[in-house]
């Protein structure tokens, strides 16, 4: 095995079948061909069995919040995977389910002929339940591979409740983990037996997706899902766009990341959260490229101290960026992996936050909005409305605005429980990066997770951190943002400064 043992586990104890026709990689979360431990392991297995490799990338219909927006993004990723795998000695089988349930027997049919099935381990959304349901019935051995973050999911032995303690632990362990990076291209210089392809009986019943047709205008119309959530006006899915964004960030924006990232007028961040969510780029590559950009070597690291700057001894902006990816992002994965059955439950908040929110649950709410008013950006607060319009139209929301957005929802809804369900609904319905450990990380942060009590105690919020639109407006440059996402811009294309427009 060329992948670290702690990234690998067996979901069942079915025997391997050395006389199978191929090794199957069931690609469900790390939808990419580079820096992907699961693909790397599938290649290792194919080499070991001396069998062809089949990469099966399905997209089902019946998942919560399925819409044209999410589907298009995933299919754009499939197009890039098809291109990256063209000419390689593997079978790439992208499959888009036309109606709910049609694809249910497909995995089992493919698995029956395989030596072993390798898949992605992902600790959030419907995927853990899917694995639980499949592992008992699949007629093959099922292997899970964790390629989610730089820190393996199984490395921490506890659930961290504050960033400082996670960061200190991460700093103690990260240098060893950096020695275990995935291969850039697991298929480079690999010789696998040639496959004659999948049997006609399978392809006739479940034809490979016609990606180009699906990406044409109206191509998704026949799939029964939410067609009102339109594809993003500004963000293209897939590994190619992710690579372009990362290169542009390193060249133009990294140097101003710590100074400008909080200003909504600016695009000083990577904009890569949708690509990270759908696995079109890996955190490993992002971290590696930033460290290379900084000419970093391991001897530059300081002793672990839990501080959010100074550990790497790189430039300030690079320290700030590495902290977002390696502390804030991965702390969310730590939580969802270890508390898989309750990370989205209100009572998973820390005791102090539950107590103060409950104490103030019955406080009068002078201003109240229901889900529909919020969804349509129909509040009296133009700053909040702009943030809501941004996510509805583009599929992402500026980082600073997300915090303000959530705090106002807490203030304007009937109860903190209702605030939670409204945030989850709007974030996951419109955000390309929604339904992610980071989604729950951010939403629960609004309600006090990973935070501490703040004084003075206020109505509704109690001692949960409070934010106002007025102070955000005073502190931040946002005039252009408010224009760009103002009510009059509804019918006009949006051209944010550094985000590329759809190219295909
Ligand atoms: C209420 C609320 C909801 C949120 N919902 C989501 C969500 O659905 N999906 C999502 O990916 N993030 C979410 N976040 C976290 C954060 O806002 C986004 O990760 C960030 O804005 C993504 O922009 P970027 O990719 O340009 O980030 P960059 O600044 O370029 O950072 C690179 C990566 O680091 C990670 N990162 C950056 N900031 C944070 C942060 N504050 N917390 C955790 N990880 C971070 C992300 O993976 C991000 O893509 C939410 C935050 C809040 C407060």
UniProtKB/TrEMBL annotation:
Which cofactor is recorded for it? Answer: (6R)-5,10-methylene-5,6,7,8-tetrahydrofolate; FAD
| UniProtKB keywords | DNA damage, DNA repair, DNA-binding, FAD, Flavoprotein, Lyase
User: Per its UniProt record, what InterPro entries does this chain match?
Assistant: Crypto/Photolyase_FAD-like_sf, Crypto/Photolyase_N_sf, DNA_photolyase_N, Photolyase_Class-2, Rossmann-like_a/b/a_fold
Record keyword DNA-binding present: yes
Q: Which Gene3D superfamilies match?
A: 1.25.40.80, DNA Cyclobutane Dipyrimidine Photolyase, subunit A, domain 3 (1.10.579.10), HUPs (3.40.50.620)
Q: In the Enzyme Commission scheme, what number(s) does this protein have?
A: 4.1.99.3
Report domain Photolyase/cryptochrome alpha/beta positions. 21-153
Q: One GO biological process from the UniProt record?
A: photoreactive repair
Q: Which reaction does it catalyse?
A: cyclobutadipyrimidine (in DNA) = 2 pyrimidine residues (in DNA)
Family indicated by similarity = Belongs to the DNA photolyase class-2 family.
Recorded protein name is Deoxyribodipyrimidine photo-lyase
**Lineage, opening ranks:** Bacteria, Pseudomonadati, Planctomycetota, Planctomycetia, Pirellulales
């Amino acid at each position: 095995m060329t992948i670290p043992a702690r990234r690998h586990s067996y979901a069942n104890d079915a025997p391997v079948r050395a006389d199978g026709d191929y090794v199957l990689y069931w690609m469900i979360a790390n939808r990419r061909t580079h820096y992907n431990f699961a693909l790397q392991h599938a290649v290792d297995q194919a080499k070991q069995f001396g069998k062809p490799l089949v990469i099966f990338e399905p997209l089902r219909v019946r998942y919560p919040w399925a819409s044209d927006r999410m589907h298009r993004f995933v299919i754009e990723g499939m197009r890039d995977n098809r291109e990256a795998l063209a000419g390689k000695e593997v079978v790439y089988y992208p499959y888009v389910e036309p109606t709910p349930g049609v694809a249910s027997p497909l995995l089992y049919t493919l698995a029956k002929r395989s030596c072993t099935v390798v898949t992605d381990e992902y600790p959030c959304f419907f995927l853990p339940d899917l694995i639980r349901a499949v592992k008992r019935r699949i007629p093959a051995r099922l292997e899970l591979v964790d390629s989610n973050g730089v820190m393996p999911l199984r490395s921490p032995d506890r659930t961290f409740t504050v960033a400082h303690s996670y960061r200190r632990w991460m700093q103690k362990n990260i240098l060893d983990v950096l020695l275990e990076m995935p291969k850039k291209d697991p298929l480079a210089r690999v010789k696998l037996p040639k496959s004659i392809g999948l049997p006609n009986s399978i392809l006739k019943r479940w034809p490979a997706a016609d990606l180009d047709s699906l990406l044409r205008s109206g191509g998704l119309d026949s799939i029964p899902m939410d067609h009102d959530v339109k594809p993003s006006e500004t963000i293209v899915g897939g590994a190619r766009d992710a690579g372009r964004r990362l290169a542009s960030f390193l060249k133009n924006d990294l140097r101003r990341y710590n100074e400008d990232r909080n200003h909504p007028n600016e695009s000083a961040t990577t904009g890569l959260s949708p690509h990270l969510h759908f696995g079109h780029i890996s955190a490993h590559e992002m971290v590696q490229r930033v460290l290379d950009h900084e000419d970093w070597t391991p001897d530059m690291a300081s002793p672990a101290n839990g501080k959010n700057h100074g550990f790497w001894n790189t430039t300030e902006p690079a320290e700030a960026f590495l902290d977002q990816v390696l502390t804030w992002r991965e702390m969310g994965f730590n939580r969802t992996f270890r508390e898989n059955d309750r990370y989205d439950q209100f009572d998973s908040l820390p005791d102090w936050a539950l107590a103060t929110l409950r104490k103030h649950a019955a406080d009068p709410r002078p201003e109240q909005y229901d889900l529909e008013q919020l969804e349509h950006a129909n509040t009296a607060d133009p700053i909040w409305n702009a943030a809501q319009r941004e996510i509805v139209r583009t599929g992402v929301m500026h980082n600073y605005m997300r915090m303000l957005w959530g705090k106002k929802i807490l203030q304007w809804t009937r109860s903190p429980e209702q605030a939670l369900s409204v945030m989850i609904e709007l974030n996951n319905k419109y955000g390309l990066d929604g339904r992610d450990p980071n989604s729950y990380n951010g939403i629960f942060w609004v309600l006090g997770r990973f935070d501490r009590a703040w004084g003075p105690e206020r109505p509704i919020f109690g001692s949960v951190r409070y934010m106002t639109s007025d102070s955000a407006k005073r502190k931040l440059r946002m005039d252009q943002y408010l224009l760009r996402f103002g009510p009059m811009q509804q019918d006009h294309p949006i051209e944010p400064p550094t985000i590329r427009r759809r190219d295909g």
